Amino acid sequence: MPENLFLETVARHVALTPREQQTVLQHMERHSYPARTILLEAGQVCTHSIFVLSGILRSYTVDEQGTEHVVAFAPPGWFIADMYSLLSQRPGQLFIEVNESADVFLLSKANQDKLYDEVPKMERFFRILIENSLVANQQRLVDNLTFTAEARYDKFLSKFKDLALRVPQKQIASYIGVTPEFFSKMKARMLKR
C-alpha cells in the first residue's frame, strides 16, 4: 500500500497511534502524474508539500540565459517543495517537475497547519525534517564551495545510489554545478582510473 511508505517515513521520527495515522492520511491527497508534468512554476505560490510515493521529482531554477539549475531531486520517500514560498506564502523561484511518472501525496499548507493541532506529533516530525533539510543544504553549499566536481559527483552517487541511471546526465551535471560538457569529460577521466 502506498501510504505505508509515508507512514514508515513518519515512524523514523515520531510514533503515531493507528488513529493518528488515519487522521494524518485523511489530510493527504493522492495524485498520479506523467513524466514532464510541471507541478509548480517559478512565480507561483507553493501551496503544498509533495511526498513522493513512486517516481522522481526535481526542483530547479532558470537563470537569465535560460539555463536550468537543479536544486533538488526527490525519489520515493522524500518530500519536495519550494520551502521559501510554502512557508512565506509568497511567489517562489523554483519549478517542480515530474522527472519520472510519479504517485505522490500532496499536503496543503492549510492541512499541515491543521495537523499540528489535531496530531501534535506531526509538528515535531516536520520540525525534524526542516532541521535535516537545513543541515543538508548547508553541507551542500559548503561542498559546492570546497569540493572538486569529482568529489561532488561521488557524494551525489553515495546519496542517490540509483538515481544516476534514472535521470538525465545533464540534470546531474546541473545538480553538482558543472556544464554537461565538463561532466562528460570528467566522467571519462574517472572511468580511466
Q: In words, what does this structure look like?
A:
Strands 1, 2, 3, 4, 5 and 6 form a 6-stranded antiparallel beta sheet that branches. α7 (169-176) crosses α8 (180-192). The protein has helices at residues 2-11, 18-26, 83-88, 109-118, 121-146, 149-159, 169-176, 180-192, and strands spanning 29-33, 38-40, 48-62, 68-74, 79-80, 95-108. With 193 residues, it is α+β, with helices and mostly antiparallel strands. A hairpin with a 5-residue loop joins β3 (48-62) and β4 (68-74). It has 8 helices and 6 strands; from the N terminus they run ααβββββαβααααα.
Order of helices and strands: HHEEEEEHEHHHHH
Rg: 18 Å
Q: What does the overall shape look like?
A: globular
Mean pLDDT score? 95
Helix content: 40-55%
Percentage of β-strand residues:
15-25%
Helix tally equals: 8
Secondary structure class reads: alpha+beta
The CA-CA distance between the termini, in Å, is 44 Å
Q: What is the β-strand count?
A: 6
